[in-house]
Structure formats: C-alpha cells, structure tokens
C-alpha cells in the first residue's frame, strides 16, 4: 500500500498549536496509548477505539430525544439525570464502525461528543498542509502526538514519511514506551523529537502509568546513540505526589546529563483535562497544580545538575 | 472603539493609579505621566473660540473666492485665538481650552444643528462632554444663525434625489443615517490626511512662502484665468503661511511672559527655550530634534484649526522625517534617548487631549468614544525601496510602549526585507496587549498603488492614515468622504423581496422576486448581486454629488500649500477638478462582510445543497428571531463559515467582492476617481447591525455585524492561521479595484508567551506579509475578555488560551478551570 493510502485513528488536528515544537505547527493527535496515566489531560486518546464523551451536566431536564435513538440501549433517564452505561455504549455498532452515532446528531445540547475518526494519510496531510504558508518561518510544521503516535506504527510512520516527502518539518511527541525498532524508524523521518520522562523509579512509574519505565529509558539511550544530531527535548509533567520532589527531578536530570542531553523542560500538572475525563467516565485525580514557587525550585534543581 | 478592548499595561497603569502606587514606568517617564495626570479621566470640554472666530471672519468676506475667505479666517483665528503654553510641557500650542481634554467646533459642517445637538451631547450616555453654560449663547445666537442654510450637510441633503435619499437618510434633515447606503462626507471637511511635515521641517514656512512667491511670478497676466483662479489661490497660500507663523510667534511672547514670572529656574529655562523655538519654527527650518517636534506639532495643530479632517490628520512617517534631526543631535551629543523619549511623550500628551467631537447622531454611532487616529507610521521602505528601519523606529516603539494612552495610533509597515530585530521588537510590543502597533503590508499596498499609475518613489513613501487607510503626501489628491453599503441588509432584502425587517413592508428597496420560487443557489446568488449592485448604484450617485458639492463649501489653503501638486497647479486640494498628476483614490466599504458571507453560506448549504431547511422555514425563523426555531438555527450554524480556511464560505466572500469590483470597473470612470472595494468599519458594525433583523448565520436581530473583514463573532474556530487564510482566500488578486481590509485577531497572552511565543508571532506576521493581506491588528486579551467569554461562550468560541504544555479553546474548559485560568491569566498580566 502506498503511504498516502494508509489509514489510522485520529482524535483531533489542531492548527496554530504553539507549544509542541518550534514555529507554527499543526498537531495531529493519534488515538491509542500504552500508558494510562492517572492525570492524563487527553483521556480521549487512550483507547484505540472510538469513544463517546457524555457531558451529562449539559443535559436539558425533560429532554428524551437521545433515548430512543441509542442502538445499544446504553442511555437511561432517571429523573432529570442522564445515566450512561459505558460498556454498552462501547459495544455500539456505530462506534465499532467509526461512524458518528445517532445520539450525537439527536442532541441539541451537545451532550455527546464522538472522539476519533478513521483518516487516511492523504486526508490528514491535506489538513496539515492548509497552513503550509506558515511553516516556512521559524521551522514550523507537523507534530504527531496522542495518545502515543507510535501505538499506530504503520500509520504514524506513513505520516512521517509522506510528510517528509512533501517537505514538512516533522516532530514527534512520544511517551517512549514503544517498540525500539519502530522508534528508530520514526527518528529517521524526524526533524525534532519531544520525549517524556516521568519518573526514574520504575515501581512508582508502573503504579501511576500502568507500565514500568525500563523500556522508556533504554529507548531514549538508543535514540541518543543512533541519532546524536536529532534535536531533542525531554519533558517531565510535574505531578504532585508522583514526581514533584527535588530528588525525583534531580534523578531525571542526572540521567539526562549522562546522555549529554541539555534541553529539558518541566511542565506543571494542570487539571484542564478534568471535564473530558469526567465525560469519558474516568476518575478525576485529586491533585493540585504545583505552585509557581515549587516549579521555580525544581527548575533550580535542574539547572544545578545540567548547568 | 476597536483597539481598546484589552490593554494590559494600561490596566496596570489604571490599577496602580487607583492604588496610589508609583510604578517603575511612571518613574522612568515622569513628565509624561505628570502631564497625563492633568487630564486623564476628565470629561472633555467644548471650546467655541475657533468656531466663533471662523464665523466672524466668514461673515465679513462673503462674495470673495472661497480659498481667500478660508485663508483670511485662518489669519483671524491666528491673531485672536487664545494661545497656551502648558505647565510642565516642553512643546507649545493647542487648539483650545487648557483645562484638560477639549474639542473644537466646525460650524461649516453642522452649524445649523449645533445648538440642539450640543444640548443633547451634554447628556449623551456613551461620551459625556462639557458645554460651558456661558458658551451656549455664542453657539445659539452667533454661530447657528449665520450657518443655518449655508452648511454642507444641508446642501447635500437637498441635492440628493429623493429616490436615492430614502436609502441614505432616516429623517428629512439628513441628521441620521439609514445605514443601507451610508455617506460619511457630511461629518468632515476632508478624508483622513497626511501633510508633508518633511517640507515644513526642512524648508520652513518662509521657504514655502518663497515657493509661492515664485509661482506667483510665473502667472501669466494676459491669461484672465490665471488672475481669476490662480492668483486668489496663491494669495491665500501667502496669507496662510503668514498666519501660522504669526500664531506660533504669539506662543513665544507668552512663553517669555511666563518665564519672567517663573520662580523655578529650571522651568524658567524650559520656558525660554520654548520661546526660542516658537520664534524659530515653523517659519524656518528646524535645527534640532526638539525644534522639529515643535514645528511638526504647530503644523498639526494649526491644520485642526483649518478643517475637520476625518479621523484627524496623521503624524506620517515620523521615523523618516525626524531621523536626520535625531541623528545629528545624538552625534553632536545634545540629545540622548531619555530626552528623546521625554519629548515624544510631550507630543503624545498634546495629541491625547484633543477630542474629535462627534456631533451628529450618525457620527456618534459610527465613531464611538471620540475615536481619532493620528497614526504614526514606522518601518517600511525608503523612497528608493530599501529597508527604512532606523534607531528612531525602535525609540518610537519604545515610547509608545511606555505611554498608557491609546494615542497616538502606532502603525508599522512590514515588507519582505523587514529585519528580524525590528519584527521581534514589534512582536514584543504586540504582546503588551495594548493592541499596538497595527500592521500594514508593503507587499500589498505598494503594488496596488503602482497598478493604479503611481510612481515607485511615491508608492514606497506611503504613510498610514486614519484607521486603516494610507496616504502619499504630494501624490494623493482625493479628499471627499466616501460611502458604505450594508451587505448584510442586501442578503435580507433578497429574502424579503426588496424589503427589510427594520423599515417594514411599505419601504421597498428593490424587488428581486419571491425567494421561495428560486430553484437553485445560482438564482439566489443572482438576486443577491442585484441587491448589492443596486445599493452600489445609489452609493455612486451620492459620491458624485459629494464630489461636486464639496468644492463649493470647503477649502484647505494650509493643506494645499503643503502639497506640491496643488501649488504647481494653483488648485485648492478640495477642488472638484482633476489636479494634474494627482492620485484620486475613492472607495466604498462593504460593511457587515463576514455576516453576509456566513449568511449566504448557510443559505447555500442548508436550503440548496443539503435541503435540510426550506426557504419558507428559513424566512419564518428569521422573522421570529429564531424564537421557536432553535433547531433551524442549529442547522444554519453548522454551515461552513468565513474565517476557517474553508473555500465553501471563503469563495462566497471572494465572489461578493468580485461583483462589487465588476460594478466599479464598469461605472467608476465617469466619477473621475477610482472607486475601490474596502472594508473598514471603525465602530459602525454596531449601527449597521441595528438595522438588520436576524440573519441566516444565526445572528440575532439588531446585533452588531462582523467588523471589517474579520470573521463573525465566534465563527472562527480553527485558530488565527485559518483567519488569515480566509482573508487571503476571499481576495481577488487579479483585480486592482481593491483597497483597505481591516482585520482583527484575538490571542491570549499565554499563546504568545516567552521568546518561543514571540518567534511564533514573527512567523505569523512574515506569513501575513507573504499572503499580501492589507492590515492586521491583535488583541492579546486577558481577564476581562475571558470573563466575557464565560458569560457568552458562543461569541468566543475561537478564543485560544495557553495551558501548560498545550493550547486549547477556552470555551471547551469546565467552569472551574476557566475560573482558574482567569485567575492565572490575570496573574500573568498584572
């Protein structure tokens, strides 16, 4: 199959995304992730299948338009409250076929949101290239994100290869928990790599993300070794109670120093994914955003290690 | 006014002022802030002196050539008007009362209804203004009786044929607009304008006077027309040169008197220096940067005494004509940057105190908040086409950033060769959130001028003028106020077979058939083009009358004597005849552009392509203002909209503009001027919306229509790059019948935070340049806007906010998190 014909699942294509690599960029969010971070702010990208978000708080009292339209019987109205059986919802024939289900169209209050659609590389790049005029300055271009973009390896690689063929500046945001060979193959098509390191303690890492960290650390090491010239920035989301101590951060910084990595950024946890988490049936973590002072202190730790 | 929504440094200044604390910026710019404290927050006062003296003189010169009468009136004003040397100021001169902000009157425009309207104005909600009780009799007993029956607006109201007039005015006297075909000429004696300050600074009025004498010597005594037409013009020029010099010298006398009485030796020295300057300029060439600023301000202020220029005469390319003086003084060691900033601050403070009074009801609505635009232009290219950026460009940018006022307007010319250093400084300034500077594009403005026959040197030397127009000193010769048509109303008139909801079934504009009988989109589109062309047909008639009438009512000897072409041809700038070598650039505005495009797109999609709404249902929904038709509105709102880089909608905008250009191409030449499509709304998108019922894009009845060529409120949901692309998609680059397009873009401070954000903004503006768009300005918005977005999310759908690690649409966030973000943004901003 030619690269342009390869298809995959995309949740969103965001133009003028300003913090996902240099210049003006369009970010393509691919669906599916091997990690299940408790704080994830893009929970709609975790599962590989289509998700239906239900913002039940927006539901109008007395309205029953969606009930009869639901093919899987997942919706029930008790009083003014709309209850959604998530398991039944996921078995919906429309969802399985990547089609917008009838509930979305029936609801005037935008309670239901379908996350994810099947797109070809051609269709994605057509969207990305709409802003081609803007990419020519300050190294703007396309960023693959997710989810974990490499969780759909054929699709992600085809996007990167075809993007490169079309002269796009390519960037990947990765959690690092990927098949090593796929990651290296991707790096060969990249102009910039954003790599997340969350915690050097593998047990803690597994508890909060669902996977241990050894493969992630090894992947970063190998990428450094095989692609020493690839511009690379490592990022850590600072999550209170998980990795927000000076010791956690110092350990990561020391690891990076050993790999001669100097570009390192700390991102404070934010709760902006909460309403989406709620609408998808995920629990909302009881975590506060780190204070500016705490972030400054951690950044000082980084500077003391990396210089 | 459009640029004042969010001004973080201004808010900062206001808060600090309220708290009584001194900010570092106040400390650094002590004189500027002390000057501002004297007038900031005070209601403006009306000064009647200019109107009284002008009237006195005009009463005595009836029957003489108009240009001579005007010059004599200027002389009378120069000799008798109170002159001022303000405390703390380093520049002398103002046009009226020194009690704070002030406005002056132009009874030649509206003298017949001044009395009535000033009483009303004193109680106006939007812009309160003080009319001193002792001045009311001067207005009602001296000024109003003389001008009644003689004003331009009365003549215009009578001259427009009835069948045209009914689309223009909403009352028998021509006070208020119908906002279907709108004329702006009766509000002002001239369009926005840029005088040739460079000439004043380098030649002085003594040198200019010598040029006039030389031209006088070349008159042919045997040619009766030279004696009849040219001699009075040149005599008027001489009188005017003498008048401004006399007026300036009176300031020297006053400054010396004040110096003699001054106890503080430092201030005494300043006053003596002011006196020296006023004895020297504008009569002779300026010798220093300080003298150059004084000479410029005298000229600018005197031009206000001459005539009401729509949105005020602009400051022109200050970083160009002031640079030789700046450079010389810096090299001589008699000027440093701090002093240069102080002097610029003195000029901004004077400019800010002058208020452009909006007296008539329609003027008040289309230009709310006493908007005025003394645009300062920096950057761009030199006359010979090289990058023009210099150290003064940076300094003016810096002085503007220090100034907490929305005056003067700062405009930057960008071109392909603009250095990164300058673009970086410009982007940093935009990020301040003041809305400044606004950006103009040499890559669009200059080729358009060339295509219309202007030489390279003049085109390269254009200055921004007024809100979003441009002027070439010594080249532009067209001064008539222009017209605007309401294109959102044109869509409504297709739907109602020539009627409007506002003016009822008996008011038939043009019947284009019952829309329920239109079988295809093309039928509907053809009807729309008929409506638009019909409004244009009327606008062109009005423009023709305006062009003819103005020459009988207005004259501008100061404006003319500073113009090479006027002096050579001995023709007043306001003549209705062709000034040889002049560029006559008239225009008409398509107002409500984005709203009309989205409405047409929704009709095409829902009624004709998808057949999800019938024409009958659509019309019923609009008549009901969507009450009971929410489902129809939802369908309509799902149609492609302008501002999202979607050719479905954008091509409708392109075709609309093209139809207007076709009309102009076929019919403009008989008017003797270009008639180009423009879309600059100032604040008139509000009153234009008030005459249009619910529209097919989902807009409620009487709500504002979209401004300029911006997307409809809340319609642009794909970010700012898509907004630029839509503007690009909807232009006709194969047509020269196009002019200014105003574009507003909102960003939150976080989106462009840090050095990374500055670089992205630079990439954005470089692309703007490549896309050959005319103009763009940014609102880098904060708290207040986000709060408004919470209250009215539909309107702010496209508002992008920066969140740690990524950006999102504000309205997508939960209420609590919005609150959090609001708190955080204000933390960032204050």
Write a structural description.
The complex is a heterodimer of chains A (307) and B (830). Chain A is an alpha/beta fold. Chain A is 32% helix and 21% strand. In chain A, strand 1 and strand 2 form a beta hairpin. In chain A, helix 6 runs parallel beside helix 8 and helix 9 (246-258) runs parallel beside helix 11 (292-306). The longest helix of chain A is centred in the last third of the chain and has 15 residues, at 292-306. The N and C termini of chain A lie far apart (48 Å). By secondary structure, chain B is α/β, with parallel strands linked by helices. Helices cover 51% and strands 8% of the residues of chain B. In chain B, the strands form 5 sheets. In chain B, strands 3-9-10-11-12 form a 5-stranded mixed beta sheet. A 5-stranded mixed beta sheet of chain B has the order 4-5-6-14-13. Chain B has a two-stranded parallel sheet with strand order 1-2. In chain B, helix 24 packs across helix 30. Residues 1-12, 802-807 and 825-830 of chain B have low confidence and may be disordered. The chains are: A alpha/beta (307), B alpha/beta (830). Chain A binds chain B through residues 14-20, 22-24, 41, 108, 130-131, 133-134, 136-138, 140, 235, 237, 267-272, 274-275, 278, 289, and chain B through 630-631, 634, 645, 718-722, 725, 751-752, 756-757, 759-760, 762-764, 766-767, 770-771, 800, 802-808, 812-814, 816-817, 820-821.
């Amino acid at each position: 199959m030619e690269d342009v014909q390869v298809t995959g699942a995309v949740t969103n294509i965001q133009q003028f995304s300003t913090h996902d690599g240099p210049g003006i960029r369009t970010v393509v969010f691919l669906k599916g992730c091997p990690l299940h971070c408790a704080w994830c702010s893009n929970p709609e990208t975790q599962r590989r299948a289509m998700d239906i978000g239900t913002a039940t708080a927006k539901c109008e009292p007395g309205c029953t338009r969606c009930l009869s339209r639901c093919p899987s019987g997942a919706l029930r109205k008790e009083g003014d409250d709309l209850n959604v059986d998530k398991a039944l919802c996921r078995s919906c024939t429309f969802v399985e076929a990547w089609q917008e289900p009838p509930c979305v169209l029936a609801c005037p209050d935008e309670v239901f949101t379908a996350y994810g659609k099947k797109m070809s590389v051609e269709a994605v790049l057509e969207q990305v290239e709409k802003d081609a005029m803007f990419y020519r300055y300050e190294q703007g271009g396309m960023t693959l994100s997710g989810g974990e973009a490499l969780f759909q390896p054929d699709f992600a690689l085809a996007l990167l290869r075809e993007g490169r063929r079309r002269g796009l500046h390519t960037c990947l945001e990765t959690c690092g928990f990927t098949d090593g060979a796929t990651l290296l193959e991707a790096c060969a098509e990249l102009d910039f790599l954003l790599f997340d390191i969350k915690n050097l303690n593998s047990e803690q890492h597994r508890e909060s993300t669902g996977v241990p960290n050894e493969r992630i650390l090894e992947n970063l090491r190998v990428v450094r070794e095989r692609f020493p010239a690839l511009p690379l920035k490592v990022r850590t989301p600072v999550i209170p109670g998980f990795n927000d101590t000076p010791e956690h951060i110092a350990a990561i910084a020391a690891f990076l120093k050993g790999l001669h990595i100097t570009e390192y950024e700390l991102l404070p946890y934010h709760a902006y994914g909460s309403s989406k988490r709620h609408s998808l049936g995920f629990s909302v973590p009881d975590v506060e955003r780190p204070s500016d002072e705490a972030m400054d202190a951690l950044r000082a730790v980084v500077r003391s290690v990396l210089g | 006014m459009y640029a004042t929504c969010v001004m973080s440094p201004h808010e900062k200044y206001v808060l600090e002022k309220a708290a009584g604390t001194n900010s570092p910026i106040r400390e650094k710019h002590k004189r500027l802030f002390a000057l501002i404290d004297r007038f900031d927050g005070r209601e403006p006062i009306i000064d009647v002196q200019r109107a009284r003296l002008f009237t006195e003189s005009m009463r005595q010169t009836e029957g003489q050539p108009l240009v001579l009468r005007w010059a004599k009136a200027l002389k009378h004003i120069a000799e008798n008007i109170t002159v001022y040397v303000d405390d703390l100021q380093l520049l002398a001169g103002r046009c009226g009362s020194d009690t704070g902000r002030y406005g002056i009157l132009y009874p030649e425009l509206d003298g017949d209804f001044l009395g009535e309207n000033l009483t009303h104005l004193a109680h106006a909600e939007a812009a309160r203004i003080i009319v001193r009780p002792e001045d009311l009799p001067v207005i009602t007993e001296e000024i109003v009786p003389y001008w009644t029956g003689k004003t331009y607006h009365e003549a215009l109201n009578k001259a427009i044929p009835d069948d045209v007039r009914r689309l223009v005015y909403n009352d028998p006297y021509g006070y208020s607009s119908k906002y279907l075909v709108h004329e702006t000429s009766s509000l002002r004696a001239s369009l926005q304008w840029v005088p040739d300050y460079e000439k004043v600074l380098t030649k002085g009025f003594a040198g200019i006077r010598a040029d006039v004498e030389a031209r006088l010597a070349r008159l042919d005594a045997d040619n009766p027309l030279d004696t009849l037409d040219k001699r009075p013009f040149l005599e008027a020029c001489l009188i005017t040169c003498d008048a401004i010099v006399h007026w300036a010298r009176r300031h020297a006398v006053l400054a010396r008197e004040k110096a003699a009485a001054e106890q503080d030796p430092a201030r005494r020295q300043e006053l003596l220096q002011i006196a020296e300057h006023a004895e020297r300029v504008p009569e002779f060439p300026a010798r220093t940067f300080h003298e150059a600023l004084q000479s410029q301000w005298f000229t600018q202020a005197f031009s206000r005494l001459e005539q009401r220029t729509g949105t005020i005469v602009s400051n022109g390319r200050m970083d160009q004509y002031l640079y030789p003086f700046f450079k010389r003084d810096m090299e001589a060691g008699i000027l440093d940057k701090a002093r240069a900033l102080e002097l610029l601050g003195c000029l901004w403070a004077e400019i800010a105190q002058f208020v452009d009074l909006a007296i008539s009801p329609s003027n008040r609505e289309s230009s709310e908040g006493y908007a005025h635009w003394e645009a300062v232009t920096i950057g761009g290219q030199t006359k010979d086409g090289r990058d023009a950026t210099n150290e003064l460009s940076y300094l003016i940018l810096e002085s503007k950033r220090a100034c907490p006022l929305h005056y003067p307007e700062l405009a930057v010319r960008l071109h392909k060769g603009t250095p990164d250093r300058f673009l970086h400084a410009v982007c940093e300034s935009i990020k301040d959130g003041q809305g400044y500077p606004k950006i103009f594009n040499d890559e669009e403005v200059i080729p358009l001028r060339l295509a219309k026959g202007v030489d390279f040197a003049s085109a390269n030397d254009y200055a921004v003028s007024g809100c979003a127009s441009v002027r070439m000193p010594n080249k532009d010769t067209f001064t008539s106020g222009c017209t605007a048509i309401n294109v959102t109303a044109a869509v409504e008139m297709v739907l109602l077979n020539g009627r409007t909801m506002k003016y009822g079934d008996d008011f038939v504009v043009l019947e284009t058939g019952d829309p329920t009988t239109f079988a295809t989109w093309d039928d509907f589109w053809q009807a729309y083009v008929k409506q638009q062309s019909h409004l244009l047909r009327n606008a062109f008639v009005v423009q023709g009358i305006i062009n003819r009438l103005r020459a009988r009512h207005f004259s501008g000897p100061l404006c003319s004597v500073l113009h090479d072409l006027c002096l050579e041809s001995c023709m007043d700038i306001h003549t209705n005849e062709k000034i040889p070598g002049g560029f006559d650039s008239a225009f008409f505005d398509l107002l409500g552009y984005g709203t009309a495009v989205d409405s047409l797109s929704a009709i095409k999609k829902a009624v004709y392509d998808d057949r999800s709404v019938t024409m009958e249902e659509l019309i019923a929904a609009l008549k009901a203002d969507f009450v009971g038709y929410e489902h129809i509105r939802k369908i309509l709102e799902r149609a492609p909209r302008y501002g999202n880089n979607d050719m479905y909608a954008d091509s409708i905008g392109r075709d609309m503009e093209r139809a207007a250009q076709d009309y102009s191409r076929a019919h403009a030449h008989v008017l003797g001027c270009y008639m180009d499509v423009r879309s600059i709304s100032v604040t008139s998108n509000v009153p234009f919306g008030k005459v249009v019922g619910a529209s097919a894009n989902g807009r409620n009845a009487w709500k504002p229509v979209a401004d300029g060529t911006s997307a409809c409120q809340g319609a642009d949901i794909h970010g700012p790059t898509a907004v630029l692309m839509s503007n690009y998609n909807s232009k006709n680059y194969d047509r020269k019948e196009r002019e200014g397009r105003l574009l507003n873009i909102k960003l939150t401070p976080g989106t462009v935070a840090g050095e990374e954000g500055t670089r992205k903004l630079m990439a954005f503006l470089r692309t703007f340049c490549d896309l050959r768009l005319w103009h763009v300005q940014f609102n880098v918005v904060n708290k207040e806007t986000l709060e408004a977005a919470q209250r009215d999310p539909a309107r702010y759908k496209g508002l992008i906010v920066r969140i740690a690690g990524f950006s999102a649409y504000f309205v997508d966030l939960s209420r609590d998190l919005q609150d959090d973000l609001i708190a955080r943004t204000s933390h960032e901003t204050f």
